[in-house]
Design goal:
The chain is α+β, with helices and mostly antiparallel strands. The chain has one helix at residues 41-49, and strands at residues 9-13, 25-26, 34-38. The mean pLDDT is 85.
């Protein structure tokens, strides 16, 4: 499995990643709720340890 690079962007359609990974941005589009994150060095390290 490949690791995500720092500064990669992640978008989820209607699903958040829980309290440990709060989204940077939440947008309401009609009846959908996209969530957006950017992989940071700290987040990458935390994901590698999970």
């Amino acid at each position: 499995m490949r690791q995500m690079r720092v500064c990669s962007r992640v978008v989820s359609h209607d699903f958040h990643m829980g309290a440990q990974w709060p989204p940077e941005r939440i947008v309401r589009v009609r009846d959908k709720t996209p969530y957006a994150w950017t992989i940071t060095p700290d987040l990458k390290e935390a994901l590698a340890q999970a």
